[in-house]
Write a structure and sequence with these properties.
Distance between the termini of chain B: 73 Å
Number of strands of chain A: 0
Radius of gyration of chain A: 24 Å
Oligomer: heterodimer
Radius of gyration of chain B: 25 Å
Number of helices of chain B: 12
Helix content of chain B: 40-55%
Helix content of chain A: 55-70%
Number of strands of chain B: 0
Shape of chain B: extended
Order of helices and strands of chain B: HHHHHHHHHHHH
Shape of chain A: globular
Structural class of chain A: mainly alpha
Chain lengths: 466, 219
């Protein structure tokens, strides 16, 4: 009998986990990355660069807070520039992490077990990056707490009809649940790290974080229940959070924004770009940390297939949007279509079509899907494409809407770029730290994948008869 | 191998979970309470003035009507602080050689205004209007406290938006007959609920929606 977590795979598919691994070798391999691997020059160099970018980012933010949002290229027709584009982009990237850890868990996809840990970390860091933008783009960021419903001395409450207020709840809930989900998943692994070292200080820190995990059956029973419940909670969250983000636009009356297809199409785009980021991270991680036994060709290929599938949902979104613009007969929407194809930003729209629709079609070829090098390039291309998609939606719709006298252009400034690049630096710096300090792949979940973990049917029946 | 954590950790762990929550709740409550505390609202803080002008003496003992000095209160948005001329109406002959009043005489001689210290300070984005309150039956003491008993003026109310809105949502509780507005000793009668309702109709107090809409105060 097959294990319940096993999915049927073809003869030619790579295995979820390389053969020949034992419980001990899995623990040893993952724990040694954290506990025994010396700090390499590569890690130091990468972290230093990201840290420098992060400092530059902080300078840019200080300048922004000191001078005001006018240091950005935003203007009166285009009130939302890079800040919102980046916000949606980062939130989108975070979604693949939850998809992998929660939705694939509900679907009992065994291949998620090797990539869920760093995908969840990716979610957390991406949401942290995204979460900065709603604050940074406020004209008076020090009053951000007015967005929370608390009994203040002004007898004032937030406007619960604004999707921007929903964003506050969506993103803060998403971050909290992701963090709890990630941490619960980490507990057994932290206990493994605790038991793998003789260094008292390290033992103490991991012991504190593992909260007295003893691997008892009772622990595991409750752990699995809680994990599954959280996965069940996180799944609607993934869909609703990005839906709420899409409401920021679709609630508006601007042509190009007011579309009912946005919620599912944004979520598909989120998973599309999120999987691209997973691959951008997984491909170097498995190479430099030599964990190809855990993150096999199978994971790479499956991620590529999810990317291809969601890429087609996004393609459908573009097509139906263009079709409805024509079919609806609204002159402003017709103009929107014309403006995207022939307006001042036409180049970027074509760039979007090429990067998001055309290039990823190479994923139909198995040779590309299983080639880390090419897949890495395609994933980078999709990340750029999905950033362009948000740019087209946010900026191009705003530059030219109803009244020709308020047509405008948007030119990002050095500060816009610094903050975009700065969040990338922050994200990467967090990833570097995560790889050093925590187990990048789930030790306990990997152990369920090896043949030794299988409970034999004969034994189970015996117990039953007793 | 020795245990990592001493047995006492059991207690510390339990208490930290419990007290973490309690401390967080206390901190939040403390912040919310601090925002309403006189420490931040300056409520009940007696301020030194260039001249120790006593309302208790002028209103309480002498029985001068509020409008003798604060002339604008029934007609304009600001009640106004009396000019030196008003002081000198009496003090040109009354206590006219007391050193205590020298700043008043100096101001009169030199034409330089007395720099009174403002006690009731609203932010500039609040457009408070005195005349409408006085004309709709809100007495001085409802907001300023019993000025006739204050040797030096202090802020009797916290002047927070919550306090303004509490009354705008339920003005009936504070309404008094127009002829009682300047009576500092007026106390709400036992039938205030009934009286307030009657007066609200009589004075045509607008709906709560209008009274609490943003542009009522933040024009």
């Amino acid at each position: 009998m097959a294990k319940p977590t096993e999915v049927e795979i073809g003869e030619d598919k790579a295995p979820v986990i390389a053969p020949g691994l034992t419980f001990a070798s899995i623990t040893d391999k993952v724990a040694s990355i954290v506990l025994r691997r010396p700090i390499t020059n590569g890690w130091l160099f990468g972290f230093a660069i990201c840290f420098l970018i992060l400092q530059w980012f902080l300078l840019a933010v200080c300048w922004l807070f000191y001078k005001g949002v006018g240091v950005w290229g935003v203007n009166i027709p285009v009130g939302w520039g890079f800040a919102i584009v980046n916000f949606v982009w980062w939130i989108g990237i975070g979604h693949a992490g939850t998809l992998i850890s929660a939705i694939l868990l509900l679907l009992r996809q065994a291949w998620r077990n090797s990539i869920n840990r760093f995908a969840e970390a990716m979610t957390l860091f991406a949401v942290a990056c995204a979460g900065m933008f709603p604050l940074l783009h406020l004209g008076r960021p020090w009053l951000f707490y007015w967005l929370f419903p608390y009994p203040n001395s002004m007898s004032y409450w937030p406007q619960f009809r604004s999707p921007l207020v929903w964003d506050v709840f969506a993103v803060s809930t998403y971050l909290t649940i992701s963090l709890v989900f990630w941490f619960i998943g980490l507990i057994p692994d932290l206990a493994s790290l605790r038991d793998q070292t003789n260094n008292k200080a390290i033992k103490f820190v991991y012991g504190l974080l593992a909260m007295g995990w003893r691997n008892s059956v009772r622990h595991w029973h409750r752990y699995e229940t809680a994990y599954l419940l959280l996965a069940g909670l996180a799944t609607p969250l993934v869909l609703s959070v990005h839906t709420v983000v899409s409401f920021d636009f679709s609630i508006g009356i601007v042509p190009g924004w007011h579309t009912t297809i946005f919620p599912p199409y944004f979520v598909a785009g989120a998973i599309y770009s999120g999987f691209a980021m997973v691959l951008v991270l997984a491909i170097p991680i498995r190479k430099f940390y030599d964990i190809k036994e855990f993150i096999t060709e199978r994971h790479i290929e499956n991620s590529a297939m999810v990317m291809l599938a969601t890429g087609w949902i996004v393609a459908y979104g573009y097509a139906i949007e263009a079709f409805v613009n024509w079919y609806g007969g609204d002159p402003y929407e017709s103009f929107l279509r014309w403006n995207r194809l022939h307006g001042p930003y036409a180049f970027w729209y074509y760039a979007l079509l090429v990067t998001n629709l055309l290039v990823p079609q190479v994923l139909w070829f198995r040779r590309i899907r299983t080639s880390p090098f090419w897949l890495f390039l395609v994933s980078l291309d999709v990340l750029v494409g999905m950033w362009l998609e948000r740019f087209i939606i946010v900026v191009v719709s705003l530059t030219r809407d109803f009244v020709p006298s308020s047509f405008g252009q948007y030119y990002p400034t050095w500060n816009d770029w610094s903050i975009l690049v700065g969040t990338l630096g922050f994200f990467a710096a967090c990833m570097f730290l995560f790889l050093r300090l925590l187990p990048a792949v789930s030790i306990s979940e990997l152990k369920t994948l090896i043949p030794q973990a299988e409970v034999t049917v004969a034994h189970a029946e015996e117990v039953h008869e007793l | 191998m020795a245990q990592i954590f001493h047995r006492s950790t059991n207690l510390i762990a339990r208490f930290s979970v419990f007290f973490g929550l309690v401390l967080a709740a206390l901190a939040l409550g403390g912040v919310l309470e601090l925002a309403r505390a006189p420490y931040l609202t300056n409520q009940n803080v007696v301020r030194a003035q260039p001249i120790q002008f006593s309302h208790k003496h002028h209103v309480g003992d002498d029985g001068i009507d509020c409008r003798y000095c604060h002339t604008g209160v029934e007609t304009s948005a600001t009640a106004g602080i009396p000019p030196t001329k008003t002081c000198m109406n009496c003090h040109s002959v009354l206590f006219n050689n007391v050193g205590y009043l020298e700043p008043v005489r100096e101001s009169f001689r030199t034409d330089k205004s007395i720099e009174w210290v403002r006690v009731h300070r609203l932010a500039d984005f609040v457009y408070f209007n005195h005349s409408i309150h006085v004309n709709k039956g809100i007495g001085c003491s409802s907001c300023h406290g019993q000025i006739n008993q204050m040797p030096l003026v202090f802020q009797a109310s916290n002047l927070q938006m919550q306090w303004c809105l509490d009354c705008h949502r339920n003005p009936q509780a504070a309404l008094r007959p127009r002829d009682q507005v300047f009576n500092m000793d007026w106390k709400a009668p036992a039938n205030q609920a009934e009286l307030g309702k009657k007066l609200a109709a009589e004075y045509k107090i607008p709906s709560t929606e209008l009274l609490t809409s943003c542009s009522t105060c933040h024009r």
